[in-house]
Structure of Chemokine interleukin-8-like domain-containing protein:
Amino acid sequence: MGLSQRNGALLLVFVAAVCMEFYQATHVVGIRCICPSFSKIQRSNFTDFQVTEVWVGCDRVELTLTRIKLDNSTETLCINPKRKLGLQILSCWERINKDKSRKMECLNKQRRLEDRASED
């Protein structure tokens, strides 16, 4: 009986060590947010956007826009999801139920809003 108590104690210590390792594995050092800072956005020809939800390495929703520059190269910009443009895109993203095949609807809507603002 003494041997089984000792085995039980060793098993308990082993399980506790494994649980501690799993807990520490969720807090990976060196991983951070994709967007360390936000860009100030002027009117631009956006071709795509990416929404990154909160995850282990970052405690905030991140929004990146891809645009075509004057030299026809592409550039990815991080925008603040709490500012006007970010809120509009995220609102549209939620409205289309995060359907990636419908992302252009959000960008086209944004273009129409910018066109109306420039006409005023």
